[in-house]
Design a protein that fits this description.
Layout (H helix, E strand, L loop, with lengths): L1 H10 L4 E5 L14 H12 L5 E5 L5 H15 L4 E4 L17 H26 L3 E6 L12 H21 L4 E8 L10 H7 L8 H9 L11 H12 L10 E4 L2
Parallel strand pairs: 1-2, 3-4, 4-5, 5-6
Helix pairs in contact: 1-2, 1-8, 3-4, 4-5, 6-7
């Protein structure tokens, strides 16, 4: 999803700061992006004749995020758009058995979103041109899911953070909104742990089993969306067409 965002914005003329942890996170049941993946993203952006600064950093580390953003803005010259998109899903358990994953999920999916925004806000203010901050939440930030209390709590928290930041930053013409995707066809959902979450009655659910159940969770008759669908929402929020759009949740779809 992150690469999709980067390329879509670069196609429309943006220079890019791309940050990733570039490694595994304890308990996450799918492969995370690597430094090689980030380097591939860099090449894709450069092929579009846009500038890009890449960095390995953990959104849980406020000092690291501040340093990365400060250095990148010094190199590129300005900051106008922020996509706080880092997040994980899983492992999944009922609320009584989340002691092992609660802190990690909240630290990345909520605190990491805050850290990203916090590192960026001073630079957008300093530019005195306004700007756009898009926080990635989820349909789980709008409604609950069984056996995902940590994820649901963090994503609801992102929605609340969006509302608070939107109010604080509106006088600076900095628009803050949240994006609430349904399932997106990426490794984050296409893995056995996610399939089991949606199909708990099956011993070894398949992608086809998951597709049928996932389809029933959306009002539009689709089981999931593609990364580009979410990136197009981000592009709208980054564009002048959304210059008076703030404090809104954008669903894709519910």
């Amino acid at each position: 999803q992150g690469r999709s965002h980067v390329i879509r914005l670069a196609e429309d003329g943006a220079d890019i700061i791309a940050v990733d942890v570039c490694g595994p996170v304890d308990g996450v049941p799918y492969d995370m992006a690597t430094m090689a993946d980030l380097e591939e993203t860099k090449r894709a952006v450069e092929a579009l004749n846009r500038r890009i600064v890449i960095a390995k950093a953990d959104v849980r580390d406020m000092e690291a995020m501040t340093s990365v953003v400060d250095d990148a803005v010094a190199e590129l010259g300005r900051l106008d758009i922020v996509s706080a998109n880092a997040g994980i899903a899983g492992p999944f358990a009922n609320a009584e058995n989340l002691s092992g994953s609660w802190q990690t999920t909240v630290d990345i999916n909520l605190n990491g979103v805050y850290n990203t925004a916090r590192a960026a806000i001073p630079h957008i203010k300093a530019g005195d041109r306004g700007g756009s901050i898009a926080l990635t939440s989820s349909t789980a930030g709008l409604k609950p899911y069984l056996n995902a209390a940590d994820y649901v709590a963090a994503k609801h928290g992102v929605r609340g953070l969006m509302k608070a930041l939107a109010l604080e930053l509106a006088p600076h013409f900095i628009r803050v909104n949240s994006i609430h995707p349904t399932q997106v066809d990426t490794p984050m959902i296409q893995n056995s742990a996610m399939w089991k979450l949606f199909c708990p009655d099956l011993e070894s659910p398949t992608k086809a089993d998951f597709e049928a159940v996932s389809l029933a969770t959306n009002a539009m008759p689709v089981p999931w969306v593609e990364s580009i669908d979410v990136s197009n929402v981000l592009l709208f929020l980054a564009s002048d067409e959304s210059r008076f759009t703030y404090s809104r949740q954008h669903n894709t779809p519910v």
